[in-house]
Amino acid sequence: MRWCRFEDGDHATYGIIEGDRVTPVQGEPWGAYTRASTSRALDDVRLLVPVIPPTFYAAGLNYRGHVLEQAQLHGTEPAFPPRADVGYRANNALIAQGEAIVIPRDATEQVQYEGELVAVIGRRCRWVAEADALRYVFGYTIGNDVSERSWQRDDRTLFRAKNSDTFKPMGPWIETDLDPADLEVAIRLSGREVYRYHVRDAIFSLQQFIARTSDYITLVPGDVIWMGTDGPTENMHDGDVVEIEIPGIGALRNPVVKER
Amino acid sequence: MRWCRFEDGDHATYGIIEGDRVTPVQGEPWGAYTRASTSRALDDVRLLVPVIPPTFYAAGLNYRGHVLEQAQLHGTEPAFPPRADVGYRANNALIAQGEAIVIPRDATEQVQYEGELVAVIGRRCRWVAEADALRYVFGYTIGNDVSERSWQRDDRTLFRAKNSDTFKPMGPWIETDLDPADLEVAIRLSGREVYRYHVRDAIFSLQQFIARTSDYITLVPGDVIWMGTDGPTENMHDGDVVEIEIPGIGALRNPVVKER
After folding, report:
1. How many angstroms away from the CA of B194 is the closest CA of chain A?
2. Are residues A194 and A226 in the same domain?
3. Which of A85, A111, B8, B240 could share a disulfide with B13, CB 3.0–4.6 Å?
4. Looking at the structure, do residues B209 and B246 belong to the same domain, yes or no?
């Protein structure tokens, strides 16, 4: 099943996508909801970020290739994470399908994409075993963990390196019936494929992240876990379009503009 | 003016506190609202966390005494932050006045309080000058940035060191008419005052945090900024009660229990 969230007059509404039509619903995808009696053309609605997460989790370093690239960039020894310790991103930075990634005025050239699988939690949970973890997942969407590398290296926190406004494109929608280990992520910069990787090559699986996080933290419906990226990343420039495609979900597409 | 949020049947309602009475309101404190025609005794309502922030910001290291203490604990050189770079905490960890701080089963003895002033944003803003920053603040409450020091030192992220469930008491309410530089914070552990400091001794002021954050990030109503703590901190044990008092606001009081 494919769920979106879209602009419906002056408020946001969840909808079910079937083919090229969207049926609005009252309620939430992970709760009780009722379908409207009429649908709309998907092309005619403005998609919003598919969920505003109560808490926004991110694996951060979770692929060997990305750890090696980042260590080289920072001039440090590669340090592979010893456990599935989750990190955080911030809701202010979320933008939807088609919205522009804005490169801040004082950013260096090193503003880069990171294409990622995103899991959306569907059921409240705590102390979850790895074997049961996927039962608490509602579905999957796509994220672009945009990063300014000089700030990531030099600032005390990730507040602007990872969380400047518009730095977290997420969407276009949530797909519920998928095996997260059986997915490929393809990243295209202005039409050119720059990298492709398998989600199953992650250092820690989604199940491991859910199990370890839930040893200390209650996960709730709508929480998202961004699973990290693999491989090298390139600079994005004013006028570029970046696409993250995960066959089975779709493609998250955002133009890039430089703030003036 | 003093604002709270409380349990009202099966939902959460904002209320205005006058003396020992609470008047429920429809709407939000920073928007259009209407007062109910009747009030209730403050003692008869169950206070909730005074706001669920869209984004939960925290200054982290922001007092010289705390930086020195933490460096000693971690066996590192003290590094004073060069700029007002804000960090993050997570909504899952929020608890209200009177709710129990639960020490996780596998935590060390080093689970410690950090008593802090909390600013609540009242107006959407971006690119704010320091001189104008307080115009965007709705009011002030109190936070206890509970921290497990061994995890803070050794884990890759702060997910369990700072954000285990119940590790972020906030409340009891929001006071709107205060000068944030003219406040003292007193911390008591089971009735004994363990530390007292002046907010004005912070390395960076609230105005500096708002100005720098808003160079990259849109702050929105309900966002909170926790301002950091000063001085040494002590271990909390099962059966303790920790109180953070800021005269002019009130006292945030939480019992401590060890998870079994």
Report:
1. 28
2. yes
3. B8
4. yes
